[in-house]
């Protein structure tokens, strides 16, 4: 129980990678705050049920990561309920694939609002309490797209490259207060977001063959690296971005 006594707030934890991280960090001993948009009540209840069945506390907070006031209110509510937040996982993200030439400005803004500004707002809302305690763990879910964009994901890749840069700069700005900031760059992980993009079993098979391990990722594959970055196993690791991609890409 390497995370026993810790509380983790995970954005976008109703489904997909965020839900797997909520359950995985709970299995490692952490109490959990699921912070997501309103709705998806059934999915939230399911995740909460798994966490409580593992003997951990779980609180739900409604929060839109693009809205500064809602982020601050949601994090204040979560902190009041749990006492403190030790671990922040900035996981909420969106991807609507479009070629750059056909991309409208609204879509560009929406991707930067959720994927990049969301990281800024949630991190800034949680840092004061971490600085006060001189301890904290921040994990940003970036993407392999941050390393190399692919056609139709240029705008998304640009947001995720921003997330890696934010990770590196935050690490330098908050390290003196004992807070680490690291990023995970998942490859293709089979969630709603990935299936919307891949669209068919043929595409799943094709991309599976492109990985060294000959399979695409399960959301659970992201849990181990997140536990590592959340725990004292990674005390001297900060400002790093780890590819979790089954050997799809190597830089
Ligand atoms: N699935 C993949 O292959 C893959 C690969 C690389 C990176 N990622 C990243 O991992 C993260 C999770 O992806 P996923 O595949 O689980 O996606 P998903 O679409 O299944 O889940 C995204 C979650 O984010 C929440 N969300 C969206 N906008 C939000 C907002 N404004 N405020 C609060 N919550 C919001 C959604 O409600 C949902 O619960 C994202 O940041 C994504 O970019 C995913």
Automatic annotation (TrEMBL):
EC number(s) reported in the record: 1.1.1.47
Domain of life of the native organism: Bacteria
Family matches, as Gene3D superfamilies: NAD(P)-binding Rossmann-like Domain
Any matching Pfam family: adh_short_C2
CDD domains tied to this protein: SDR_c
MF annotations from Gene Ontology: glucose 1-dehydrogenase [NAD(P)+] activity
Keyword vocabulary terms for this entry: Oxidoreductase
Residues covered by the Ketoreductase domain: 6-187
UniProt cross-references to InterPro entries, sorted A to Z: KR_dom (IPR057326), NAD(P)-bd_dom_sf (IPR036291), Sc_DH/Rdtase_CS (IPR020904), SDR_fam (IPR002347)
NCBIfam families given in the database record: PRK07231.1
Family statement: Belongs to the short-chain dehydrogenases/reductases (SDR) family.
Entry protein name: Glucose 1-dehydrogenase
Upper classification of the organism: Bacteria, Pseudomonadati, Pseudomonadota, Alphaproteobacteria, Hyphomicrobiales
